[in-house]
Amino acid sequence: MCLKNSGRQLGSSVRPASAILARRPAYSLRLRLIRWYGSLLTLGLICFALLVLILVQGVTNANMQNAVSAETNIATHNLNRVLLVEPPYWPPQLEMDALDTYHTPGLTIEIFTMHRNMLYASDASRSLGLDSSVVHDLVRGTTPIWYKANVSGDQALVQASAIYPSSLNMMDNVAVSNTHPPIIGVLLVAKSLHDTNNTLMLLQGLLLLTGVIILVLFLGCGWAIIGYALRPLSELVKTSSSIAAMLAHGTHTGNLSQRVMMRPAGNDEMAQVVDAFNEMLTSIESSTAVQRRFIADASHELRAPLTTIQGNLAFLQRNSEAIPSDERHTMLTDAHGETLRLASLVEELLLLARADANMGQTIVPALPAPIVELDRTLLKLVRQIRPRLEIECASPTIEIGGIEPVRVRGDEESMRRIMVILLDNAIKYTRTEECKGKITVALQRVNGQAVLRVSDTGIGIEAKDLPHIFERFYRADLARSREGTGLGLAIAQTLIEQLDGSITATSTPGKGSTFRMSLPLV
Questions:
Q1: pLDDT number for residue 8
Q2: Is residue 28 a contact partner of residue 167, using CB atoms and an 8 Å limit?
Q3: In degrees to the nearest 10, what's the CA dihedral of 138, 141, 144, 145?
Q4: Which residues partner with 383 through β-bridges?
Q5: What's the CA gap between 56 and 411, in Å, rounded?
C-alpha cells in the first residue's frame, strides 16, 4: 500500500514537469539565437554599407571638385587673356574661344559682372543665375564658394570664383597683399551631378540587394547550424520527457537506463551538458537500484526475526498448557532474542535513514564540536573488549601496534561506535580454533590527519567483493557463514563522513584485512 501511494505521489509530482516540457516551443532557443544572430548580422551589413557609401561619396565628391576646379583654372586663364588692362576691363564682346572649342558635356560656365549682368554663358539652355548672397560672400573675401544648384532640372555642383583685373596676378596678390584686390566679376562653373547621383543610387541598390541576399543566406545557414548544434539538446529534452512520462504513468523505473546517444564530437559546452546529463541518469539509476536492493534486503532481514517471533508466540498461544516450562522458557528466550535483534536492525536502519535525509544539507552548528582525545577513547575500548576475548579460546587477541596522542573534533559516542564496528567486524571474521588469530590496532598522526588502523589475520575479502563492502546489506561470499546484517560497515562509513573523515579497506583472501580510518586533527 505504501509503495502504491508513493508511486501515485511520484507520478503526480512528475506530471506537471512533463506537461511543462510539452508546452514549451520546440525551437524557442533556436529562434532566440537566430534572432540575435540576424540582428547582429543586419547591424554589421548596415555599418558596412554606410561605410562603403561614405567612402565612395567622399571620393566622388573629391573627383567632382577637382574636375570643376580644373575647369575654373582654364576659364580664369582664358579670361586673363581677353580682359582689358584699363577700366572697365571688360571687352565690348566677351569671347571665350578655348572654352567654346573644348566644351565638356555636362559642364556649364557663366560669367557675371558685379552688378549681376551675364557676360558669357557656355550653354544658353542651361542657366545658373547669380545669387546676391554669393556676390556678398565673394566681396567679404570668401573664395571659392561651393554650393549645389538645380540646372534645368538636374542637380549640379557649382564653384563661384571672383574675377580680378588682368593687370593683377590674382594668386600673387591674394598671397602677399593685406588688402583684397578689386573684384570686377564672378565666374560660375557648374558640373552636372546626374551621372554621379545615378552611380550612387545604383551602388545603394546593389548594396541593398547584396545585403538582403547575404542576410537570407546567412540566416538560412545559421538556422541549419544552430539546429545541428542543438540536436543533442533536443534529444536530451526528449529523453527527459520520456522518463518523466513513464514515471507519471507508473511505468517500471527500468526506463532510467535510457541515455542521450547523440553526443557532439569534441569537448565543447554541449558535449559537457550531454555527458553531465548521462552521468546524472547513471547516478540516479544506480541510486534507484541500490534503494530497491536496500528495501528488498531490509524486508528479508526484518522478515526472519518477525517470522521466528510470530511462530513462537503462535505456538505458545495454542499450546501454552501442554508445553513444559523449560521448553516454554526457551521459546520465550528465542523470541526475546529475535526481538532484540529486530530492535537493533530497526535502530541501524533509522540511523542510515537520518543520514540520508541530512545528506547534502549544510548545517552550521551553533557551537564548535567538542574536542575528543581519540587515543584515550581507543585504549579504553580495547581494555573493555580484551577480558571478553580472553575467556573464549576461539577469539583472537588484540595487540596495540602504536598509539600517538591524537585530538579531533566530533561526537565521542559516534567515534566509539565506529571503533566498535571495526573491532567487532575484525573479531567476527578472525575467530580460529587454534587461538592464533590476532588483531592489531594503531593510531598515528599522518599529514594533519588522525589515522586509525585495524588489521586482522582473518579470512580476508576477495577482490571482487572489496569495492562493495561499504554498501548496505552487502555480504561477501566468505562472510555469509557469519552472523550479521551487512549494515555495520555502511553505518561506520556514514558516521565517518559526518565527521568529515574517510575510510578505506585493503585485504588479502586467507591472510586478513586492514581498515584505515582518517579524521582531521584539531
A1: 40
A2: no
A3: -50
A4: none
A5: 83
